[in-house]
Amino acid sequence: MNFLPYFLDIVKYTIAGLGIVWIAFYLIKPYLDRDEKIQLLEFRKTISNQTLPLRLQAYERCVLFIERVNPANMLIRLNAPSYSAHELYSLIVDEIRNEYQHNITQQIYLSSRAWGVVKHVKEDTLGIVNNAIKGAPETATGLDLSKIILGSLSQLEDNPYELGASMLRKDLEELF
């Protein structure tokens, strides 16, 4: 019995079958890819619908943070005529750190650029307050320190709080 013709028939039918499977795969592949893209878009849409309110709230909270650490607003809120300069300094630093810690989780929903703005505003504010306490006389009152802080803030060419809030608004506009 000669197995060569049977073997050649098996090879011939196997190659033909593999060719048909290969052609069918490449004919069906675009439809599979399109379905995968549609599912991915639907998934992204669902995620976006869920996270957009959280992102908007995070931007709101960070703008509020910037307004709350603005010395012009903070000094009114702390109302410090009876404090010494060092007591007021401690209150201001604690207030800034507490506000920052309260909003630190918002960085999850912000862009890295927006969170950098928030950190930069915090650091600028601490720098202004630190420079003010260094320049204050030892017997200065809280009112004197407030005047020094507000004076140094008014001498700045660009208000970091207005710049920070506008940068956050600009970053938020890029979401839409």
Label this structure with key terms.
176 residues, mainly alpha, rod-shaped
What can be said about this structure in brief?
With 176 residues, the protein is an all-alpha fold. The chain is built from 6 helices and no strands.
Explain the layout of strands and helices:
Blueprint: H1 4-69, H2 71-78, H3 85-103, H4 112-135, H5 142-155, H6 160-173
Helix pairs in contact: 1-3, 1-4, 1-6, 3-4, 3-5, 4-5, 4-6
Q: What is the overall silhouette?
A: rod-shaped
**Class by alpha and beta content:** mainly alpha
Can you write the helix and strand succession as a string? HHHHHH
Residue fraction in strands: under 5%
Rg, Å, rounded:
32 Å
* N-end to C-end Cα span: 77 Å
The overall average pLDDT, rounded, is 88
Helical segment count:
6
Q: Give the oligomeric state.
A: single chain
Low-confidence spans: pLDDT under 50, at least 5 residues?
none
Q: Got a strand count?
A: 0
Helix content: over 70%
Largest sheet: none
